[in-house]
């Protein structure tokens, strides 16, 4: 199985309806020309709008988060089964803002990942070290713990719907991108030293880089052997920029 290239926009808590319409109007102009799978994760209340507008553009839509339960008394949560039911394709799980602002821990993220996959969604599972962890030489240790705990005991029938996103926390929304070499080192660690240990097919899984990716640096990042796409925040909000990320010159 060959690895595929994904450019995934994480819109976070941004975008009004008018912004979303402008985004899809810009993407319509380059329809059919992307070199990758183009996915976006809007705020939950905009998923259906994006599903309608994305359909004609070949853009798939997912959520930024999902619950560790399918239904019941969980006020404010997003059921993976209901996401699948309305046509969502994937969920981002374990984004650093969920880990560090909302305190989501490895076991909890493992439960969400399993449930998302059981519900038929793809899971984009995020990992990444904080600045002090990198400076203390702990990058591999942190990423290893996040991957092994977060993806443990996932039955093999679901493995082909897992994507990993390596996002160093110090590079998210800061304008500081990891150098292509820094990113490649961690991607290679995840792929070659780690995935096989937890019984995931290292050769088949796409590993995306995230952290201040923009049109001017995407090509060099994607040129690295083990970087199979990007998870993008700020530069994914405007269709013109997202279009450039999806078809780098
Ligand atoms: C992200 O939100 O996952 C992200 C990488 O953000 P940014 O591209 O803005 O750094």
Q: Mean pLDDT, rounded to whole units?
A: 96
What binds here, in terms of ligands, is: phosphoenolpyruvate
Ends apart, CA distance between termini: 26 Å
DSSP summary: helix tally: 10
How would you spell out the order of helices and strands? EHEHEHEHHEHHEHEHEH
Poorly predicted sequence stretches spanning 5 or more consecutive residues = none
Task: Give a verbal description of the structure.
By secondary structure, the protein is α/β, with parallel strands linked by helices. The chain is built from 10 helices and 8 strands. It has an 8-stranded parallel β-barrel with strand order 1-2-3-4-5-6-7-8, surrounded by 6 helices. α1 packs parallel to α2 (47-55), α1 crosses α10 and α7 crosses α8. The model has no long low-confidence stretch (mean pLDDT 96).
């Amino acid at each position: 199985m060959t690895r595929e290239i994904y450019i995934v926009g994480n819109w976070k808590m941004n975008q009004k309806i008018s912004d979303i319409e402008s985004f899809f109007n810009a993407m319509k102009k380059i329809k059919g020309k992307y070199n990758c799978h183009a996915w976006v994760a809007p705020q939950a209340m905009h998923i259906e709008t994006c599903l309608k507008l994305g359909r004609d553009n070949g853009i798939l839509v997912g959520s930024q988060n999902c619950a560790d339960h399918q239904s019941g008394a969980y006020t404010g949560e997003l059921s993976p089964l209901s996401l699948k039911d309305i046509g969502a394709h994937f969920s981002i799980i374990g984004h650093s803002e969920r880990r560090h602002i909302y305190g989501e821990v490895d076991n909890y993220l493992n439960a969400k990942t399993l449930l998302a996959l059981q519900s038929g969604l793809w899971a984009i599972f995020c990992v990444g070290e904080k600045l002090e962890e990198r400076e203390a030489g702990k990058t591999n240790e942190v990423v290893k713990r996040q991957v092994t705990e977060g993806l443990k005991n996932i039955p093999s029938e679901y493995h082909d719907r897992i994507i990993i996103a390596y996002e160093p926390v110090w590079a998210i929304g800061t304008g500081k991108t990891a150098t292509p070499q820094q990113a490649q080192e961690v991607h290679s660690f995840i792929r070659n030293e780690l995935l096989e240990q937890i019984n995931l097919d290292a050769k088949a899984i796409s590993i995306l880089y995230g952290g201040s990716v923009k049109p001017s640096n995407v090509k060099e990042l994607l040129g690295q052997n083990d970087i199979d796409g990007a998870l993008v925040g700020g530069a994914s909000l405007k269709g013109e920029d997202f279009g450039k990320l999806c078809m780098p010159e």
